[in-house]
Write a structure and sequence with these properties.
six-stranded mixed beta sheet, 240 residues, four-stranded antiparallel beta sheet, 9 helices
Length: 240
């Protein structure tokens, strides 16, 4: 589904990504782990071109997103993105937050958009909060709404940028449960995360980034139980 070839990203004179190569297949759940500053979030933001790469290619469903002639907005509709900081519109109800993009961008009729939003809210246990405003929700509820908002666009792949890092510890579980359900339903997912238990349980492949390169990748069993790279071993010793 996504082929990343020699992906590079510079900010000013700083080389943040130094040649990333990887493949993401339909149904994959890829967890990206590594220390702060290793390029994880930049890698994720390059996948849907929120950051324009300095070099390399991102082939998504057969189209090169780095080609200047490509219709990026069309491709972004197929990539749901969930951020650390929810990014809900504070002046809109939950329902309005969920239906505005499908109605504007995909011309979905309001009745159909509302029905889909209610169905998805029910799946994350928030059907009763459709008329609430974001400031009436807990952090965990806001993040679940943010996930539903991305799902309302019926994306082919979901990108998560440390979706639990801004949450109180007791709210982390409710968001991870929604993500586990998504994974079990077959959604293709790329997740930048510090939640090693989630990565071990849900991912079918893990990428370990350090200093802008993938130092090691493999199954959770390989990464957690048989790491080969010395830097990965020292990272795991600190976080497990």
């Amino acid at each position: 589904m996504i082929s990343v070839k020699n992906l590079q990203k510079n900010f000013g004179g700083v080389e943040v990504l130094k040649g990333i190569n990887t493949e993401i297949d339909k149904g994959d759940v890829i967890c990206v782990i590594g220390p702060s500053g290793s390029g994880k979030s930049t890698f994720l933001r390059c996948l849907n071109m929120l950051e324009r790469p300095s070099g390399g290619q991102i082939i998504f469903e057969g189209d090169d997103l780095t080609d200047k002639k490509i219709d990026l907005d069309l491709h972004r509709q197929k990539m749901g993105m969930v951020f650390q900081q929810f990014n809900l519109f504070p002046h809109m109800t939950v329902m309005k937050n969920l239906t505005v993009a499908p109605m504007l961008l995909k011309k979905v009729p309001e009745e159909k958009a509302r029905a889909k939003a209610l169905e998805l809210l029910g799946k994350v246990g928030l059907a009763d909060r459709a008329d609430s405003f974001p400031n009436q929700l807990s952090g965990g509820q806001k993040q679940r709404v943010a996930i539903v908002r991305a799902l309302c666009m019926e994306p082919d792949v979901m990108l998560f940028d440390e979706p639990t890092s801004a949450l109180d510890p007791e709210m982390v579980g409710e968001v991870l449960d929604v993500m586990k359900k998504l994974a079990s339903d077959g959604m293709t997912m790329v997740v930048v995360t510090h939640e090693m238990g989630f990565a071990r349980e849900v991912a079918n492949r893990i990428l370990f980034l350090e200093d802008g390169v993938i130092l090691e990748e493999g199954t959770p069993d390989h990464i957690f139980n048989h790491p080969e790279n010395e830097r990965l071993r020292s990272f795991l010793a600190k976080v497990l």
